[in-house]
Amino acid sequence: MKLFTQVVALIVISLPTFAQKFTSLEEALKTPLKVVELDLSKQGLSEIPAEIEEFVNLEKLNLKDNQISEIDEVVFELPKLKSLNLSKNNITEVPESIVNAKNLVHLSLSHNRLNELPEEITEIAPLEKLYVSNNKIETLPSEMGKLKKLKKLYANNNIISGLPTSFNGLKSLKILKVHNNNLFKFSAELKGLKHLKKVTVYSNEIDTFEKGKLKTRTPDFCQVVFEK
Predict the structure, then answer these.
(1) Taking the domains of the chain in order of start, what are their residue ranges?
(2) Per-position b or e across 52-70, b if 16+ CB within 10 A of its CB
(3) Which pTM value belongs to this model?
(4) What is the distance between the alpha carbons of residues 144 and 93, in angstroms, rounded to a whole number?
(5) Residue 9 confidence (pLDDT)
(6) CA-to-CA dists, residue 172 to 60, 152, 189, 218, angstroms
(7) Is residue 152 within a helix (H) or strand (E), and if so which, with residue range?
(8) How far apart are CA 163 and CA 166, in angstroms?
């Protein structure tokens, strides 16, 4: 029993004491192993700091509201990263290497200059929240249905004209926002999505006939919002 107590004590001592949150890169670099959450939003960054790779225990990274134009692939190599916020930047492309972000649960790319999303994004199995609103996206990845854990998809305020038929595979989806796009019909079959609670489709090109069809393609309990 004494030996067991000593072993437990040794394990506890050897574990790093994690800080709640860092808002300064300089301060974070003083104890990189303690950095679990790093908020560098609104700091006038034009690129993702290369030093990010030192934060091997980083789970949440906020780079919102900067002037970043490229996503450094080093971000996707962070082994414990679960949440990445790159909204309100100047990003024009998401590299295919995003497939390496194996533990990503929350990804925000809203308010950028994206024209498309790579198919590789559909390989991130744990992804639950994907925010890509207010871009210039024309189409969504054809294999979106692979994201079996996706609960929220915000793709409003783009120029999307159609949704992939694979959407019927989004078995965990609860909220789908596709308002303010160029949708003129809704071919995706969502009837089998038992968790779907809300779909916003206002400010599109959907006529009365298509609106009627849409209601038959969503669960009976789902709220379909046609008016703003």
Answers:
(1) 114-228
(2) beebebbbbbbbbbbebee
(3) 0.90
(4) 18
(5) 41
(6) 23, 9, 14, 14
(7) strand 152-154
(8) 8
Q: What pLDDT, on a 0 to 100 scale, did the predictor assign at position 17?
A: 54
The confidence band for 19, taking pLDDT boundaries of 50, 70 and 90, is: low
CATH value of 114-228 in 3.40.50.2300, 3.40.50.980, 3.80.10.10, 3.20.20.60: 3.80.10.10
Going by C-alpha positions, the residue among 15, 21, 48 that lies closest to residue 35 is: 21
Length of the chain: 228
- What pLDDT, in 10s, does the model give residues 55-111? 999 999 999 999 999 999 999 999 999 999 999 999 999 999 999 999 999 999 999
Residue 120 has pLDDT above 70, yes or no: yes
The predicted model gives 177-190 an average pLDDT of: 89
DSSP state of 85: E
What distances in angstroms separate CA 42 from CA 17, 88, 89, one per listed residue?
27, 10, 10
* Residue 202 to residues 44, 166, 174, 211, Cα–Cα distance (Å): 35, 22, 18, 10
Q: Which residues of 95-132 are buried (b: 16+ CB within 10 A; e: fewer)?
A: eebbebbeebbbbbbbbbebeebeebbbbbeebbbbbb
Give strand pairing partners of 154. 131, 177
12 pLDDT more than 70:
no
Distance CA 109, CA 81 (A): 16
**Per-residue pLDDT averaged across 141-147, rounded?**
96
